[in-house]
Design goal:
Blueprint: E1 2-13, E2 16-24, E3 33-37, H1 44-51, E4 59-64, E5 67-68, H2 74-84, E6 85-89, H3 100-105, H4 123-135, H5 151-163, E7 169-173, H6 181-196, E8 200-205, E9 216-221, E10 224-227
Helix pairs in contact: 5-6
Length: about 230
């Protein structure tokens, strides 16, 4: 499903170069739940963004379902992301002036997206977005903007947005890091449902909460991966 090959990512800093990823090779099979664990600053987010086609490696390549992500043009890579990949981040990244429902609609599948000529979202798109929000316990909160939601509600909205277009893979970056145990459990249950339906999950974290869901756990140390 996803295969980074000898991926290295170097950042230039005031004191010289920083090697965030150092020759990483990995094969993630379709339907796997992989946890990648490491301390803050170990390169977890860099790796996730690289796997998702959002950060070009300095060296190496990333295959996604057999296609070289960074050999694609920006438009084709963007289309692949929108159709096949769902992202969930620790800081939610919701659009602040949109409601929870509108945030989820941003990621609706192409056949469900709002049509410009209709003057508003198609009813099937709205219905599907409302259903997934209800499945995350957000019934009655659909018309609230992010500032009116708790941290747990924001993250569940972000997860609903990541899943509404039924992606092949979800890339999750510390999605429970800012949550209380109850909300963290709800997020993990949502990811477990997605995985149980055949979805692939790559979950990066510094903790152990996701270990019980994982088929494989890897440690990221010094820009390199090794079994936990």
């Amino acid at each position: 499903m996803i295969e980074p090959q000898e991926v290295t990512r170097v950042f230039r800093a005031s004191r010289g170069e920083v090697k965030a990823l150092d020759g990483i090779s990995l094969r993630i099979e379709r339907g796997e739940f992989v946890v990648i664990r490491g301390p803050s600053g170990s390169g977890k987010t860099t790796l996730l963004l690289t796997l998702g086609g959002m950060l070009r490696p300095t060296r190496g390549r990333v295959l996604f379902a057999g296609r070289d992500l960074y050999a694609l043009g920006e438009r084709d890579r963007s289309r692949l992301r929108s159709e096949s990949i769902g992202f969930v981040f620790q800081m939610f990244h919701l659009v602040p002036y949109l409601t929870a429902l509108e945030n989820v609609l941003l990621a609706a599948r192409p056949r469900l997206r709002p049509e410009a000529a209709s003057g508003g979202p198609r009813r099937d798109a709205v219905r599907e977005a409302e259903e997934i929000l209800r499945s995350f316990g957000l019934a009655g909160r659909e018309r609230h903007r992010p500032a009116q939601l708790s941290a747990g509600e924001k993250q569940r909205t972000a997860l609903a947005r990541a899943l509404v277009h039924r992606p092949d893979v979800v890339l999750a970056d510390e999605p429970t890091g800012n949550l209380d145990p109850e909300n963290a459990a709800q997020v993990m249950e949502g990811l477990e449902r997605f995985h149980g339906e055949g979805g692939t999950v790559v979950f990066v974290t510094h903790g152990t909460l996701a270990d019980r869901y994982a088929g494989r756990i890897l440690e990221l140390k010094g820009g390199r991966l090794e079994p936990a």
